[in-house]
Amino acid sequence: MEILKVFDKKFVKYLKFAVVVIVITLFLWFLVIHPLILFRGYEKEIEKAAARYYEINPSQLPTGTRVKTLSIQELFDQAYLKEDFYVPFSKKPCSIKDSWVKVRKEDGEYKYYTYLKCGIISSNVDHSGPEITLNGADEVTINLGANYKEEGVKSVIDNTDGKMNVDDVEIDSSDVNTNKAGTYKVVYSVADSLNNTTQVIRTVKVVERLKNTVNKATNKMGVYTGANPNNYIYFSGMLFRIVNIDGDDVRIVAEQDVSNVNYASIDEWLDYYYEHIAQESKKYVVKNEYCDMNATDDNISTLSSCSSFTKESYVSILSASDINKATTSDGNWLRPDSISWVRNEKDDKNAYTVRNRFYNTNATYMAFDQNYNFGVRPVLTISGSALIDDGEGTKNNPYSIGDFSSATAGDKLNTRYSGEFISYSGMLWRIIDVDSDDTTKVIADTTIYNDGARVLTHYDTQSKAKIYNPKERGNVGYFINNQAVQYFNTNYFVTKEIEVPIYNNMIRYGTESTTKKYKVKLSAPNMYEMFSAFDYNSDTMKSYWLLNSSKKQYTKALISDIGVVMYGDLYDNAEYGIRPVGYLDKNCSIVSGHGTYEDPYVIMK
Q1: Per-residue pLDDT for 4 more than 70?
Q2: What is d(CA 234, CA 448) in angstroms, rounded to the nearest whole number?
Q3: Bridge partner list, 120
């Protein structure tokens, strides 16, 4: 009996061992051996298909020591292969796009090499190109006009062929143009004995100091003059124009009026504007003194020098002397079609504005009460040693100093900068700023059109003071929030609480007596916010209502058809357009584009 008990224990032990072995064997069979057998069958089927292809197309066979590559996709396209290949135990197809059969003649016979990838299984065939190591850096920066010196290749090593001759590497530097600022590529290519090819790229940046570029473009005058010089520069996501050289630095001005502000509050508003310059771009901004000289009707048009200056600041506006220096017989690019303030006061109550030509007069400058709201074009001074790394100074291809980078696909919209453009629902929008809840506040680049006709609205309420109110029927604010949404897709916009400023009498920056809060999806622009002024980029933009309004009867604000802010005696039956403002969902991502007017970001949620 004792012997039987011992035998039973040994039998159970061996039985358990046998079960483990069987389980392991089955595991190996199903997860390793069977998939490999299936995969090797794929490889044989592909090789047979390639052999049939060359049997029917013998002229396609390589000669000498050459290697011919036939893609597996092509074998399917030409019906040499018919049944799809799948990763074992799945419905996921093998990666045939990057798989191939290579053939070359060895010892008088054609030999086939098949590479196929199915999930984690791939053919044991050399499919990697050689590793190229360059002499010098992968990115080279050279000055405009200098010669590009090719540093060549340090080594080439292949996992099968071993160390290769560096002279076998083909070097293509034809893209490099050292006479034009920009980023170029030098391409290094080499193939191993099985024609697996590697490409390595060296980036060559051709740059020039901003100050030197301005000197060349202005024939060393340092000032851009005439009707339309090529002096555009892209900075902090916004288009500027170069005014002149200022010592060792360069002065730039916003291409358009950004907002309309009363002169008495300009410095306070300019602080708000500077907050919207990208942090990366602020590194290039230099504190500077700006002309702040009183003028008279008799001398304002002839001022060319300055005897009084502001304290050092990061941002200001141009003076009449800056503008006058740009005049030539063919015009002056600094005179706007809107009405913009210049940094010249007539007296304690009045300051000067500039316009290409005022109505009923050929005058360029005209003084107005400092409490009036007119256009503001901010001016900055940036480092003259900044490097121009791209662009030609034209509007479609402005200079760039690399102060920031455009978004890449997948970036969140709320990581972008004030001033960049977005394409959504067939309309162009511009980023005002990003709110604390990560929604992105945007303004339409134009007013709303429907079937080619501009959508207009007016105040149709009984109250004497026409205060902007999105909850009051017949109110402009109500129409914009409740009816304007029918003219374009608003699915990406979110409902947000906004503050409507209400003034006692005059509409002036920072002087609202009260504010009222409303939850809306769309609103009119606030006169004092970024990019609320008329934008001449858009040929279709006409008049539009503004958010600002007063308790005083008929005192409300809008931008007229000629781009000038109007407020005061605006009657109820007057109809004007709609330029919507809203908040885009925090989950909006960028699909493509560069954020410029010509190539705006395309977004998705």
Answers
A1: no
A2: 28
A3: none
Tens of pLDDT along 214-230? Answer: 999 999 999 999 999 99
Of 388, 374, 398, 375, nearest to 240 by C-alpha is 398
233: its two tokens? 């520069």
Backbone conformation region of residue 349, classed left if phi is above 0, alpha if psi is from -120 to 50, else beta? alpha
Residue 586, pLDDT above cutoff 70: yes
DSSP string, 361-429: S--SEEEEETTSEEEE-EEEEEETTPEE-B--SSSSS-EE--SS----TT-BGGGS-TT-EEEETTEEE
CATH code for the structural domain at 131-208: 2.60.40.10
Q: Quote the pTM value.
A: 0.78
Distance CA 511, CA 348 (A): 19
Domain ranges of the chain: 2-122, 131-208, 218-388, 407-604
Sign of the torsion formed by the C-alpha atoms of 115, 121, 126 and 127: positive
Asked whether 221 and 242 are in contact (CB, 8 A), the reply is: no
Q: Residue 291, Cα to own-chain centre: how many angstroms? A: 34
**Contact by Cβ (8 Å): 235, 401:** yes
CA distance 233 to 526: 27
- Report the percentage of the chain scoring pLDDT > 90: 72
Q: Any idea what DSSP says for residue 75?
A: H
3-class state of residue 202 by DSSP: strand
At 117-163, the pLDDT tens digits run: 998 889 999 999 999 999 999 999 998 888 999 999 999 999 989 99
The confidence score (pLDDT) of residue 192 equals 93
Beta strands 131-134; 456-457: pairing state: unpaired
Cα maximum dimension of the chain = 132
Reference 264, options 374, 371, 378, 375; nearest CA is 371
CA gap 408, 416 in Å, rounded: 11
The CA distance from 468 to 549, in Å, is: 6
